[in-house]
Amino acid sequence: MDITTILGLIIGIIVVTLAIMTGSDLSIFLNLPGILIVLGGTFAATLIKFQLHNVFVAFTVGIRAAFVNEIDDPRQLINQAVRLTKVARKHGLVRLEKAKVKNTFFRKGLQLCADGREIEFIHKMLTREMEMAMQRQEIGSLVFQSIGDSAPAFGMFGTLVGLVQMLSQMDDPTQIGAAMAVALLTTLYGVLIANLIALPLSDKLVMKTGQERENRRLIMESITQIHSRANPTVVIEMLEAYLPEKQRQGEAKREAAMSRRATDKKP
After folding, report:
1. What are the domain boundaries of the chain?
2. Least buried of 22, 41, 49, 206, by fewest C-beta within 10 Å?
């Protein structure tokens, strides 16, 4: 569960609600025609820009990105790769079939290794799967970006509609208030939908897509090292290149840690 998304939504809703209730009744900010203009217009514009399938995929991907934290820790992936390299060196690649790995992309690569596939074929399969997954997330980001662009525009459209209605009914003072409500509230709805929901989700998808792409590249390099039964020390050196400088252990730190463990084991 990605707590930051929930926390952000709760804080945003509370701030907006308190700001409204401080000076007036909340019910006066609810206007059905204004909501229909913004939601209906935004949805229609989104369908024009994208295929219906992509829109539904975007909502599925967006919800998962917003509320489910599925990004693996790169350090844990490296530790898994080192452990599995030792298994491959000691028991052979077939033993990898029984490895307990949660990451489905990693598990598929290990299964291909256990099946005796050539590394070129494994790379081709994993690259294709990675690109397809990243493409789905990028389309999701574009859909939410489009919603973020369209919602304020249709809010402004509703404002113009309300102003036209108001000006056409100047001789009837009882209708001016309702027309003015549509004029102002549609802009409010569009701004809230764009800046509290759509654009933050788009940005989060972009961020998580980048993190997921780096993790999958790390996994592909891990599969290469496991397939070649490389020395675990070499595996660490190769994979730590995917980490920020501050997160790298470094050779000196590893040797010191290994020395401490060896000392602790002595009677």
Report:
1. 30-243
2. 22
